[in-house]
Each structure stands twice: as C-alpha cells, then as structure tokens.
Design goal:
Layout (H helix, E strand, L loop, with lengths): L1 H10 L12 H10 L3 H18 L2 E2 L2 E2 L8 H18 L4 H18 L1 H5 L1 H15 L7 H24 L2 E2 L4 E2 L23
Antiparallel strand pairs: 1-2, 3-4
Helix pairs in contact: 3-4, 3-5, 3-7, 4-5, 5-7
C-alpha cells in the first residue's frame, strides 16, 4: 500500500515527504529512551497475562487459588500499576522494579503457578530490566559548556567581592548589611546576648 502511494507521488511529480525532526515518531523515540519503557511494558503485560490466567475456566473446572481468588485479582492489578508507574516516573524505577520482582515471584504461589509461568517470567524480566536501566549520560560537549558557564559565574562573584568596600566607621559594607558575622549576630554581641 505504501509503495503504491509513494510511486503515485513520484509519478505525479510530487516528491514523497520524509518525516522531519519533529515528527511524532521521533518525539516518541526520544521520550521512550528517557525511561525504562521495555521493562515497564513487560511488567504490565505480565500482569495482564496473570489476570487472565487467574480468571481461567477449563470446562466445568474454575482454576482459582488464594483467599477466594483475591490474590488472582490484586497481584495482576499491582503489576500493571507498577509497569505504568515505571514508565510514568522513571526516577523511582529501582523501587518499582524491586517491588515488581517480589510480586512476580510471589505470583508463582498466589496466581496459578505465576500464570502458568508466562506471566511470572514476563514480569520478572520486566522488573530486572527496570532495575538495570540507566538514564543516558550527558555528552562531554555539554559538560564543557556548563563548566565554561560556571567559570564565568565564579569570576563575576570574585569581582563583586573585590569591589566591596567596607566603611569601618559605620560598620556597613558595600552590600548594605551591618557587618554581621557568620552566625548572623553582630560582631559586638556578647555570649549573654547583650550588645557592647
């Protein structure tokens, strides 16, 4: 289909447009790379699989473990929630990943052998990928630029300190504070709180 459309545009004289740098796909790729997307997705998919395996009916047999099947509902919902939270808040990825690993391993006992091992394995791999994911490091060029900006700030602070004149008679410096010491008190204050 796409080849037919591209060929029609080429024959008609209109060149086929290529997606620009601000295309949806490019922005999604940049957003996805800034978070543990695959780990969160696998954790959530494992939770969905666990949910459907916990609600399984085989003929007249209803497979359900735990206290009235409560675990077969809570554990999958928790895994889906953890997968979404990992994607939404990557700063807390280690906490969510460890909780997802613990819940996934517990699902082996709590939800039909971990969704017949499939849901447990998906959630476990998702939790491992979540914990192991690291944000992309800043390039060396960006570090050099920020260091150069910091050097300019330090030099301007040094100039202000050297330009400050102290009026010794009034006890007021060029910034207008009354010569307060590091503790915030007057240099003439005594230990008992009286002023000399």
């Amino acid at each position: 289909m796409l080849l037919i459309v591209a060929a029609a545009h080429a024959i008609g004289g209109e060149p086929a447009r290529e997606p620009g740098p601000d295309s949806v796909r490019t922005r999604f790729r940049a957003w996805r790379r800034g978070r543990p997307f695959v780990g969160g997705l696998l954790t959530a998919l494992g939770g969905v699989e666990l949910f459907f395996s916990g609600q399984l009916d085989i003929g007249k047999i209803h497979v359900q473990l735990g206290i009235e099947g409560l675990q077969a509902t809570i554990i999958p919902i928790l895994l889906v929630l953890l997968g979404i939270l990992v994607i939404a808040m990557p700063a807390h990825r280690i906490f969510y990943g460890v909780i997802a690993l613990a819940v996934a391993v517990y699902s082996l006992v709590g939800v039909n052998l971990g969704g017949f091992f499939v849901g447990m394995l998906l959630s476990t791999v998702g939790g491992i990928l979540t914990v192991a994911w690291m944000p992309k490091k800043v390039s060396a060029d960006a570090v050099v630029d920020t260091d150069a900006a910091a050097d300019v700030d330090v030099e301007s602070d040094a100039d202000v300190e050297s330009d400050a004149d102290v009026d010794t008679h009034a006890g007021v410096d060029a910034d207008g504070d009354a010569g307060l010491d590091a503790a915030g008190g007057s240099p003439a204050a005594r230990a008992d709180g009286t002023v000399a």
